[in-house]
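Please check this.
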Amino acid sequence: MIVTVEEVLDRLKTKARPDQLKGMSKFGITVERRLGISIPNLMKMAKEVGQNHDLALKLWKTRIAQAMILASMIDNPKQLTEVQMEDCF
């Protein structure tokens, strides 16, 4: 089971598809701090990780787009505070 930020980031980097970033930029998506991982891959990883509020908070702080998306998938909405939501931007 994946339980640390380092483990998650290592796993994300193994799934990275930098070749996908060029296509994203065509749609006006900034490619900085992105790895080019598909949403279905992130959803599969979220199922493997399971709900984990503390890990989600740490992933969010990385400011890596796919790590933040994964964080939104594994966080527990009941533990999410208004302050944390405001920190999103």
Observations:
- The chain has one domain: 5-86.
- Helices lie at 5-15, 21-25, 39-49, 53-61, 65-74, 82-86.
- Residues 60 and 87 are 10 Å apart (CA to CA).
